[in-house]
Amino acid sequence: MRENVVLVDSNQIAQVGMPQYFRLTRTQIYYLLQVSGWSAVAFREIINYTFFILNRFEWAIAWTFLLSSVYGFLLTHSFRFFIKRSKLFELGLRQVLIAAFVSVIVLALVLGLCSLSVGFILGYSNLNDAISIGYFLGLAMNWIPVTTAWVMAYFLVHILEQNNKIAREKLEALSTARASELELLKKQLNPHFLFNALNSIKALVIIDSTQAREAIVKLSELLRFTLNYEKHPLIPLKAELEEVEKYLTLEIMRFGARLEYNIECEEACSEVLIPPALILTLAENAVKHGISELPDGGLITIRATIHDNTVTIIVTNPVGKMKKPTGGIGLRHVQERMNALLKNPGFILNSSQADNVSASISFTKSEQLHEHTYYYS
Amino acid sequence: MNIRTIIVDDEALAIAELKEMLKPHSIIEIIASPDRAENAIEIIEKEKPDLLFLDVNMPGLNGFELLENLRYIPDVVFVTAYDHYAIRAFEVSALDYLVKPVNPIRLSESIERVRLRRAAMTADTPSRESIAMDSKIFVKDGETCHFIHLSEITYIENIGNYVRIYFGGHKTMMHRSLSYLESRLPEKGFFRANRREIFNLKQIAKIEPWFNSTLRVELKNGNSIEMSQRRSTRFREMMGL
To answer: pTM (2 decimals)?
Structure first.
């Protein structure tokens, strides 16, 4: 049964483990179980009376129980609508169990009342027999095993289904999170840069092997930094700028005279702590959306200043006429990490100048200098 | 016979690297290696090389845009570092492409393919006229790239700022005016039927007189085109009808 429940989709297209031509929808399964269940109840009572209590068959008995079963069917069927409307199974287990218990009792009482009326309708009882509350409660009691079975079956299916739905949703959320994490990781590795750098180094091996060897070291260090930076929440600005410089010199190897850079960092802010790869991401964007789009290239400037404990770092790069900056996943990640790790973070992308774009980040200098020790290798 | 080759890449080291790798292939004769797409167009039009090694990511004009601006299109091998969109485009239309850093075996395969294609072409010894018809145009429609041989084109129709090209059972859109395309197509092979359509003269199945002394052309792919009065007169003159 459990496996069937797994396969039963909440939208009617149930696939019970049967061949194609014998597959039933959820609703069909429900009606099948209802009809067969209630028939079984009536049949059992009729057999019981015919063979063990009266020792003879009586139509009155048969009609009584058949009609009772019809009542049972109609009652539980309308009860199902009520349950569906109430969205009971999205509540906690406690509420569901209480509801189940109450349902068993209420259904049994109503069915008891129905059983009373059966006698009148079929004309087998008179009013005097039925008037006692004891008789009514007895009838209701007789129904308790049946309603218990019905409620248990119905509730069990729904509880399992609900569990399944929750598990599936969790799994879906997890896989979405994984996918975006992977996308970000790819972004961090900057594959376009990586393959181009490798290609340049391949050429350099023949032309200038000393420079090729230096480039391999720089590329390795940069790669190690990129792969490890999530381990350190904050690093000194000085260390970050060293990585940026490695990156830019590697890009110069590729772009030649088309790329120039100028990094200025006030002495007072060289030890300021920032999330790693923050400026590296901005520098990568400056190359990707600036230099690599311009046949004549240009100058990238990075300036870090401090004023009244507020640190401002501005990365400026030239852009072509067509390009307008777009806030991609890289910039979004920069902002997320700034918000998480810096005090009073601010991020401005300024493209109002004719042919330059500047990305400017600002934050209040952190006081806890030694909390996150960074061992720079 | 040497394959006259031009390398286009914006990075000097990438050009140096490819030149180095091409050294063992004596069949390849490098005649130029411009590092700007704009210069490349001029050089290619002038030199009419047999083969182009073309970088996809370049400033100014990228590789695709460069091809779209060429009147003469040689055989092309794309070279790209990492551009999954571009690579997808190549896979769809089975164009040849190499990824940087280039694997020497893949490079040899590409050159061999070009050599075989050229050998097959020269074996046909085409006439002068069909040489023009044998040239191709490059069309990038979204993520799909096509090199379309002019002889394959059935007709071209104007749709707003675009033209739709029908060729060999396919069709594709190009962001160009019909007049621009008309100026690029060989006069002897194509005919402007009216304001909206140009058709390939070799693709005519049937010509019949139509209303007001115009002509109606039925093409091999089943489409039919009605010529304007003025163009019908021109067509009659041209064909000596």
So the answer is: 0.66
Question: What's the pLDDT tens digit per position in B142-192?
Answer: 777 888 888 889 999 998 888 999 988 888 888 888 888 888 888 888 999
Q: Which helix (H) or strand (E) holds B127?
A: none
Q: If interface means Cβ-Cβ distance under 8 Å, which residues of chain A face chain B?
A: 191-192, 194-196, 198-200, 202-204, 206-207, 253-256, 292-295, 297, 320
Token pair for A259 = 């790329």
d(CA A46, CA A57): 8
A194–B59 C-beta distance less than 8 A: no
Q: How far apart are CA B217 and CA B227, in angstroms?
A: 8
Say if residues B33 and B7 touch (Cβ distance below 8 Å): yes
* Coil, helix or strand at residue A333: helix
Q: How far apart are CA A73 and CA A69, in angstroms?
A: 6
Beta carbons of B12 and A202 less than 8 Å apart: no
Q: Which residues of chain A have pLDDT under 70?
A: 1-22, 123-131, 321-328, 367-377
DSSP A32-89: HHHHHHHHHHHHHHHHIIIIIISSS--HHHHHHHHHHHHHHHHHHHHHHHHHHHHTGG
